């Protein structure tokens, strides 16, 4: 290809060309490598799922116990591969990883279980955090006293938002919740009594916990006690949500997600259960906010931007909307990966976006899909397929039963 | 389990009292009066677009009647919420199957049994004894009903993966799971072959004999004439005849409505 030229020039030009070609190849390969890695990863989660399904009950409990013990022990190690260079590992485990996990579990109740698309979920997180900050700095209440108050405040906010808006469906509800998230942010930003854009500080830490077995000292310096506290809260919440999922409550939510009209005609008080989903989701978000705020010395409105609502939603969808185990995995991935690859700081949102797009193409049901949702996704090609989109947004199907039979 | 025993009584379980349902200028039901006696199989027939499903939708609270009244066991149904009406003891199936597609057959039925359960979110979170008992009993009752309609062996399959006929049977089981007094069946035999229709007829009679009252919409005349205790005929929103199956078959207006005039063929 090279045209005749002076020998030396030709050689250096060739080297340049070769290098350029190699670079191009490298660049072309990067997405491909990512994709294959991704495919392997997804395959792995499937295999883990199969092993889990095949295990007898005691085996599952043993595995679960080992996993929980591993989670408690994790911040004591700095494991070689999963360590986070550039930021404190235990700190990353507390925020964003464990915090996102708790938030995602709460959002999954609303989005994954009941199929109500909430785009302003960060508002409840903010309400919890501001409750902690205000009652801690002004009233000098104890963390343990504020915790239930923050949860109740968030739940009440959920009911206040839900009572008038849950009559809406699908896209309309999404837009209203989006507006609610913005209202909470703007209200915090513009109310000088709660610090305005400067926010609130110094937020008190929880009192020390001294028992015969262990001693937890909550300070700025050591994030481990916070992580253990949050992990314990997560376990309690997981058990509670699990119990709901497997009862009448979870069935009502699924029925509403699948066909709200039919659910109501089968005797499900749909409004009441949607409101429950909102209140429960909100209170879990508020709970996460309280713990988040007590760990920070200061919070301000920019900790609760719209992008967090989207990030939380991404965690839910990425992990497998409707499946709590999947959602936890999704939140860990969404929280952890950006911290692990801090060196890509400038472009990490681009990669994150690309990963989400790839995910939606190759694995729309999430990393660890819910059993039901999986079959829904597989069947979308068939006629008479899904009536609900991946986020549970309503796509009204054949509705002739409710048309006047004229 | 709510079961009505005893012979057919004269007091109607469901009563439509000069019921009119208009959508703008379209009158779907025009001054219709019906009385469904307890313990009967009451069939509602008529050409497509006659207003049969509209009757179901008014009775179950989907539509609010324009004029007149619908009473169930003496109580007006108008203005009540749909789930309240289900709670009062009226259950229905759908002309176009509307199961919860991703839930298993048993779960579909369980959703319906929950209307009779007292515990809710706190009971589930705290694992109260009463809640656990209700879950257990719901499951037992659900399996019983799946067995009654003959699909107990498919309890664990998602309802979407069930064959068409089993989906229709599951709809009946789901309706019965709300422990109703009155069951509204909307074209339960649609798409069935003759053998399946015979099995369905047997099932409907069996359900009636268990103590339920049945209001049936069906196009298959063989089925309707074979099992109905009483038949009412609607045409263009008006009741044009009612009576015993034999009388209906002989009624001139009914024959005219069915064989009838060209406009009837326009709707599908």
Describe the structure.
The complex is a heterodimer of chains A (406) and B (268). Chain A has a domain at 97-371. In chain A, 66% of the residues lie in helices and 1% in strands. Chain A has 14 helices and 2 strands. Chain A has helices at residues 7-54, 57-73, 89-113, 122-137, 143-165, 171-190, 224-245, 248-258, 260-265, 270-295, 306-319, 324-340, 348-362, 371-378; strands at 209-210, 215-216. In chain A, β1 (209-210) and β2 form a beta hairpin. The N and C termini of chain A lie far apart (75 Å). Chain B has 2 domains: 1-89 and 181-268, P-loop containing nucleotide triphosphate hydrolases (Rossmann fold, 3-Layer(aba) Sandwich); 99-179, no CATH class. Chain B starts with 11 loop residues before the first strand and ends in a 9-residue tail after the last helix. Chains A and B meet through α7, α8, α9, α10 and α14 of A and α1, α2, α3, α4 and α5 of B.
Which architecture of the largest domain in chain B per CATH?
3-Layer(aba) Sandwich
Q: Please count the beta strands of chain B (DSSP E, at least 2 residues each).
A: 10
Strands of chain A, count: 2
- Low-confidence stretches of chain A at least 5 residues in length (pLDDT < 50)? 379-401
Structural class of chain A: mainly alpha
Name of the CATH homologous superfamily of the largest domain in chain B: P-loop containing nucleotide triphosphate hydrolases
Spatial order of the strands forming the largest sheet of chain B = 6-7-8-3-9-10
The main pleated sheet of chain A reads as: 2 strands, antiparallel
Give average pLDDT of chain A, whole number: 85
Chart the SSEs and their pairings.
The complex is a heterodimer of chains A (406) and B (268).
Chain A: H1 7-54, H2 57-73, H3 89-113, H4 122-137, H5 143-165, H6 171-190, E1 209-210, E2 215-216, H7 224-245, H8 248-258, H9 260-265, H10 270-295, H11 306-319, H12 324-340, H13 348-362, H14 371-378
Antiparallel strand pairs in A: 1-2
Helix pairs in contact in A: 3-7, 3-10, 3-11, 3-12, 4-5, 4-6, 4-10, 5-10, 8-10, 11-12
Chain B: E1 12-23, E2 26-37, E3 41-45, H1 52-59, E4 67-72, E5 75-76, H2 82-88, E6 90-92, H3 105-113, H4 121-126, H5 129-149, H6 164-177, E7 182-186, H7 194-210, E8 213-217, H8 221-227, E9 230-235, E10 238-243, H9 245-250, H10 252-259
Parallel strand pairs in B: 3-8, 3-9, 6-7, 7-8
Antiparallel strand pairs in B: 1-2, 1-4, 4-5, 9-10
Helix pairs in contact in B: 3-5, 3-6, 5-6
